[in-house]
């Protein structure tokens, strides 16, 4: 299937829904393309295998992917883009400081596509290595060190040059440095090996193909916007499944309190970590299970496990309420059907108004138990909103 520029532009206009804070639903990562803030190197296979027509289609796809981005050298919620081409060897066409506006980038990408190499070889290792250097140089003197980095590779073939230049090992090193890799297999001849090879290089969940019906949307929503959704240092991102690299990210970060505290003190301690932090909420079973696995993995203490969560009895409204960040209205538990109370719970809220997640026995799932807000000392879990296109983090 050819990449359709008109279809891609139409699909871009309908982004994914970003669920709002203040609801009984954990927020998804925002994907406001105009507020994307990344440093990206586009790596294009311009060998003979790609061909002039293929390069032109790739250029159209790249132009559409970045059409709504604010490409500039100005600091803030902006994106910088560099361009690398490769065949038998790689060439840095434009570094991260080259483009000052989006229109210039779009016209330039088509100029690059008009100049295919005569190389018959297509060694992706060379393209990745060049992109790694461009990103490293773009961080000179700490410039934009709060910004996530990404490499987007468009390849018509996948070939290794042996152990010394193994693209899988290089890609692993790049990803360990916190750089996301998005791959697009431009398969013109039905070679399944291209997609399989590129998938080994990509960040889990970010390997795409020109056969995808919504390629632009996939690259934007499931690639760039996911990379642009991250947590500050020492915080762990909430995902659809704990410990799964390809799990979908949510716009929430978790952190454990490493020492026991009463519920009231734990609440204040979370708020003092960051003015948007608060005791963790559990709106559904997925979040409940993630928090438990996170605590079990990170706390370093033996079970059965018990820890404070952000649920307490609100005297003024006479109902159970979830904590939110400072000056944000609390969320009623009644807005959700999920309430995994332990047997016999909740007890009298006037006596035991604060809630812990408690595993009653080593072989049981944890549930909610009530307790005194001042006399029950346990570990606790805090959460805050992730950095994403709706939440710019000046420092991380």
Automatic annotation (TrEMBL):
Keywords from the named record: Signal
Any Pfam family matching the protein: VWA
CDD domains: CLECT (cd00037)
Residue span(s) of domain C-type lectin: 253-373
SUPFAM superfamilies per the UniProt record, alphabetical: C-type lectin-like (SSF56436), vWA-like (SSF53300)
Domain VWFA: from-to ranges: 39-224
PANTHER family tied to this protein: C-TYPE LECTIN, C-TYPE LECTIN-RELATED
Protein known as: C-type lectin domain-containing protein
Organism: Diploscapter pachys
